[in-house]
Each structure stands twice: as structure tokens, then as C-alpha cells.
């Protein structure tokens, strides 16, 4: 019903914006034109021109997006060249580097901001400017709920980092450096030098972390121009593609190429396969599920396993490989990967440039086979997200095999339990903690409701006494997420989460946990009767929020297997204002 109504509302006039500006002597249109004239537009500027919104997530509190004002100017040039009227507007911005408790808690809020800004204002189409991790899915979620012609321009990755003759990746090298400091192999002064070298330019993380992954997912979904994902932020070609996007979005209005025509089931299947081939972040799971939910496309976590399980890892980038996004761009980027796996993709899927995936990639070249491998010579044979189930995760948990230690992916370990993140921080480095490398670190109450916001703490730093012995990985289990730049044998997104009484809440110190990634199994070796007794004794922690956005969040957030969106935001609502 929502989609039919939105379409009817759209086609009553050629341009949506004419409902604000269209009638030359109309009582309602006259004030709208008058107020826009404050910016110096001639009166005839609103006659039959598509109004193009430029949704800008620039903020000085989001360092990855600091160059977006210039990026917006490039989009404006393209819009004007094609006969459109560009109007830039801000939304809240999500910086993973600074926001507490986690930017993920505000992803849904930003999506509401984008959705309501688009619906309430006289725009015929929108160009989304996104970079840092959560800005990309948040903007796509909001835009999908409105369903206008939509095109996304990513901010691009920063340049490679160099330290003492070594090329390093932001995030990945940060986590490794922190572990080295804890183990006593790096001094705090050396770490400070490393830290100052890790962010050499504008742009998001240049590893295949969540920001690079979601830029690649946007391209794989078809909502960006081909080649968008990998162009470095400071490369002049980043601004050129932004200008081309401004030109193209005006054409999309005339073609009525709305977002729902791009975000099809085929597009999501393509994205899942590309995510596996590039070694993308586990965070792509919750983000793609949430975006699909907004368009009404049925997508489940099992699709990630079914479609990506047998996909080889082709892109040799940190944290799963050797290189960084700069080399990925020079090697051919996402189009080169898509061409390598073309027979596994829906090449007839439509993209925002009006061409199909197959048409876009038919001439794509790979210029460096060390960076983008062939299917017969992959980095690793299996790279897709693995979905685990068992009595510890009835609704599923996930692991990224390409970032895990092979020897740990089939194991039987003793649980060492941390009841929450504060308990973990207080005890993890206690020399008397009863733990060794044959244990599993279990973190509770870090899921969507429990933290709240499902932070990136699932790749728990190992105890100092084990790090000092050279132990670099252990089995780690939680209902949290982990940074896409991180690595390790981390079982994540365990659902249902512990805060609502999921089985993870019932794990006790000393319990044995069986993990078999190949068999897709995670099992708590405790009898059903004992688990039932523990369940009866379990009591939820009181919700610490009486009001405000935090209370709205915990009351309405869905579980990890449903995309962590709000229950009342699922499904399309269309572009028509309420009345």
C-alpha cells in the first residue's frame, strides 16, 4: 500500500518539487519561492528544473568526512551542468572514531533524519555523501524508506600509512600496536609515533574495514557510479566522479529511476557475493539486512552463508591480506572483482547509471594480480561469512573465517565469562585470572539492547599475561560486533542476545564450548535441564534509561539477525508528506 501510494503521489506532476514551487500565483507556492530567493536564485530558477538534494554528512566530529564540503561543490557543478537545481542540506553525522557509546547506536537515528529531511522538503532526487562506517548504511536506509531517485558518492579511503619503512593500515595496525604495548614489546612513546603516522590524509580507513566494505557494498548494490568505492579521498578523480554523479542524478529524475528499482533481491545477492570476494567486514551483515528491510526485500543471515560460503577470497587487503585500498584502486577496484566472479552475479541487475552490472564490468581490467587474485589462485579458498547455530545461538552467530586462526575454528574450550564490558575491563589483565590459550573469552551484555548499541568490542584484547607469552589469538564469543579492521577468531552477533535472556546469558565459568565452523555449529556443553534451571534463575538487568533516545532505542531495536533496525522503521513509506 505504501509503495502504490507513493508512486501515485509522485506522478500527479512531473516533478515532486512542483508541489512546492509550481504554481506561479499560487498562495502556497509563492512563499516557498520567496524564501528560496534569499539565496539569490532568479524567479525562473524553479520553473521545471529538478531540485536535487545533496545530503551531506560532513562534521568536524567525523574526521573521515572532513573533505565533504568540497565534495558537495563537485556534485553541485554536475547538477547545474545538467539543468538541475542543487540544494545541500546537513544531517547528523556518525564518527566511529569519537562517538560514545558507539556510532551504531545512532545509525537508526541518522536514518530517521535522512528519511524525514527528504520527505519533508521539495527535492526530486538526492545525492548521498557518505564515508565513515555508519553514515553509508544510515543514509541508504533513510533514502530507501522514501524511494526517490538516489545516488551515493563515497568519501573514499585515506592514503596508505607508513611507519619505520613498513606500510600500515589504520585500525588493523592500531589494534596490533595496542596488543604489542600490552605485551611489553612496544613502548608508549613508540606507540605514539605509530599513532601519528596512521591517519595521513582525509578519508576513511584504508583497510578493508567497515567503511571500505560499505562503499564496496554500495557499488555492488548498484547505487553508486562504477569505480566509486576505491578512489582515494584526496585523488582528483574522487571529485570528478562526484561531478559525474551530479550530472547523472538529474537524468535519473527524468527516467523516474527510483531507488527501489535498483535495490532488488538480485542486487543484495550480488552484494553478498562481492562482500565474500573482497573479505568484507562482518558489519555488512547487519547493515545489508537493515537496508533490505527498508525496501521490503526478504533477506536473512542464512543468505550470507548460502551465497558467500564457497566464494574464494580474491582481494589481498588487510586485515585478511597484505595490501590497502590505494593498491586496490590501482588494481581495478570493485569492477575488476565483479568481472572475475561475473558468472556468479546477476549481471542483468540495473544500476544507477542506467546500465546493468554486466554492461558496466564487461571491459573492467585487473592491473595487479597480487592485489586482486583469480578464482583459481585465491588468497584463501573460502571467504564468506559463516553463520553458526546451536544451543548457544538459536537465531545465529557469525564469524569471518578469513580473519580467524584456522587451528581454532574447530575446538573445545573452557569458558571464561565476563558479565559486561566493565567486568571485562576490570579483570582481563588480572594476573590471577584463571585463563589460558585453550579457553574461550565470553562477553555478555554487549548486544543491541544490552550495551546498548552493539559496540565493536567482540574482538576482545587478550589478557596481558597471555600476550606476553606470544599468544595472539583465542576463541572469543559475544553478542557484540567487531571492527571491520580487526582480526581474530571472534564469534559475533550471537542471537538472541544475553540482555533479553538468550542462551549466552546462561554461560558460566568452566562451561565447555564446542566450536566447529565447517559444520556451522556452536554448542554449550550443558544439559537442557541445567540450562532450564539457569534460565529460571536468570533476571534481566534494569534498563538504566527512563526517557530520551536511549530508551527509544532499547524499547524498539531488533536483534542482530534482523539487522538491528527499529521495529517501527521496517518497510517502505514512500515520499508523500503526512498531509
Looking at this protein, list some descriptive labels.
single chain, 579 residues, alpha/beta, Rossmann fold, Glucose Oxidase, domain 1, 8-stranded mixed beta sheet, globular, disordered N terminus
Describe the structure in your own words:
The chain is of the alpha/beta class. The chain has three domains: 2-160 and 200-367, Rossmann fold (3-Layer(aba) Sandwich); 161-197, no CATH class; 386-541, IlvD/EDD C-terminal domain-like (Glucose Oxidase, domain 1). The protein has 20 helices and 14 strands. The chain has helices at residues 2-11, 18-21, 29-36, 68-81, 107-120, 135-146, 172-183, 188-197, 210-221, 236-255, 265-278, 283-295, 301-308, 325-331, 333-340, 357-361, 421-427, 464-467, 528-537, 548-556; strands spanning 51-56, 85-90, 125-130, 150-154, 161-163, 166-168, 386-390, 393-399, 410-418, 439-443, 475-478, 490-495, 512-516, 521-524. Strands 7-8-12-11-10-9-13-14 form an eight-stranded mixed beta sheet. Helix 6 links the parallel strand 3 (125-130) and strand 4 (150-154). Helix 6 packs parallel to helix 12 (283-295) and helix 9 runs parallel beside helix 12 (283-295). The longest helix is centred in the middle third of the chain and has 20 residues, at 236-255. The protein is globular and about 75 Å long. The two termini are 16 Å apart. The model is unreliable at 1-12 (pLDDT under 50).
Short description:
The chain is an alpha/beta fold and 579 residues long.
**Integer tally of domains:** 3
**Proportion of strand residues:** 5-15%
Any idea what the CATH superfamily of the largest domain is called? Response regulator
Write down the CATH class of the largest domain. Answer: Alpha Beta
Distance between the termini: 16 Å
